[in-house]
Specification:
- With 409 residues, this protein is α/β, with parallel strands linked by helices.
- It contains 13 helices and 18 strands.
Length: 409
């Protein structure tokens, strides 16, 4: 006998809450911007809950081994990571020196597999704590970690980071956070102009990592969000993720100074090319949970591919995102639109990692784009870019009328 839709949806909502991501019947208590005496928000129909409420526990990364340097062990964060990783069953090695060793296998594939299952806990040197501009995303890039445990076959880090793709987390988080004031309002490095009106001076924490993937081990995001919440200035923290384990962050006193963006794509892309990440319904469920907890939220639709029937695929994505946010009060939503591109170097690295990938990386089918530094990127042909951009501008305005499109690239 077929079960009622409302019964199945109710079970899924219960499972989602048990997994640590809230979907309460009334607005979350204690969030600084929520009226605790409000009557609540409209709930989604059960049929739509089926589409966006996850059925699985949040996606978590469990490294097989953890390498810790002596310098890192001076910091409480490193000791916390060691304790949590050991509890997960990871092999923990305290290195005799601050240089990482043992990262390479006999072949490129072995090196990739070894590095992707390794977490290194290190100390960020002064050079990493000197912030750099990161347009068009934010005024400044602040690194809590470097490297990502996911297995996306188009990975941008393949062309940005050198060496085996090991994930490094920085143990000296207090030093990193203490240095931010110099780049904020009134600091010696305060930017002359700000990237985005209405958000203050912005700090991007996910340029070279997915910080949520590491949060269960590090706690770095919760500490950083709380830091920005307590920073009584016109500033904003930004980060994007393909994961969904938001539970510990939902009760952090963020004071609306953090924007959580979810990297999303058409289902055909997320299911085939984004290994080791949360499925799209899980990400959209986390988007809803973040918005209900009062966070500013965003969609990073990237990389955009002209896949077969792309209008249908991306149209479904936008409609699902709208459904995920339906009835949530006071939503502050942004959208970033980023098309697929690659360099000769990133192409070589990606093909060594994923020799059977279906991602199109043929320079002959692309347009050459030269950066101001003289490097070459292969982007989609101009006519394809124009067609995609025209469609997205109309579709986002139609499906997400309250959203602000920050940029197209």
């Amino acid at each position: 006998m077929e079960r009622p839709t409302s019964e199945i949806a109710g079970e899924r909502a219960s499972a989602y809450e048990a997994a640590g991501t809230k979907l309460p019947a009334e607005p979350a208590r204690g969030a600084p911007h929520v009226d605790p005496d409000s009557d609540g928000e409209a709930m989604l129909p059960a049929e739509r809950l089926l589409d966006i409420v996850p059925t699985r526990a949040p996606k978590r990364w469990k490294p097989r081994r953890v390498l810790v340097t002596p310098a890192a062990l001076r910091w409480p964060l490193a000791r916390r990571v060691v304790e949590r990783a050991a509890a997960m069953g990871a092999e923990v090695t305290e290195l005799p020196a601050n240089r990482l060793t043992g990262l390479r296998g006999a072949t490129d594939r072995e090196t990739y597999a070894l590095a992707k299952s390794t977490l290194a806990v290190v100390e960020a040197p002064p050079s990493k704590r000197r912030l750099q501009p990161i347009p068009p995303s934010a005024d400044w890039r602040v690194d809590l970690a470097e490297g990502c445990p996911a297995h996306c076959q188009y990975c941008y880090l393949a062309g940005s980071l050198t060496g085996p793709p090991v994930t490094r987390v920085y143990a000296n988080l207090p030093e990193i956070l203490d240095g931010l004031a110099a780049y904020g309002p009134g600091g010696p490095h305060e930017p002359a102009t700000r990237r985005r009106e209405g958000e203050g001076i912005t700090f991007e924490a996910s340029c070279y990592t997915d910080p949520l993937a590491l949060e269960e081990l590090t706690g770095s995001l919760a500490e950083t969000i709380a830091f920005f919440g307590a920073w009584d200035a016109d500033v904003g923290l930004r980060w994007t993720t393909k994961f969904d384990a938001l539970g510990p962050l939902l009760d952090v006193d963020h004071r609306r100074r953090t924007r959580i963006r979810f990297s999303v794509n058409a289902r055909d892309v997320t299911s085939r090319l984004e290994g080791g990440t949360a499925a799209l319904p899980e990400r959209l469920g986390a988007l809803r949970a973040a918005a209900r907890a009062g966070y500013r939220v965003g969609l990073t639709i990237a990389p955009i591919f002209p896949i077969p029937e792309w209008r249908e695929g991306y149209g479904e994505l936008l409609r699902d995102a709208a459904a995920a946010l339906a009835g949530v009060p006071d939503v502050d939503l942004t959208v970033e639109l980023i098309t697929h591109r690659f360099t000769a170097g990133s192409r070589d690295v990606l093909l060594s990692w994923y020799p059977r990938t279906k991602v199109e990386m043929d320079p002959g089918q692309r347009t050459v784009k030269r950066t101001k530094f003289g490097s070459v990127k292969y982007v989609l042909p101009r006519e394809v870019m124009t067609e995609l951009r025209t469609w997205f501008e109309v579709a986002v305005d139609r499906e997400l009328p309250g959203a602000r499109v920050l940029y197209w690239t």
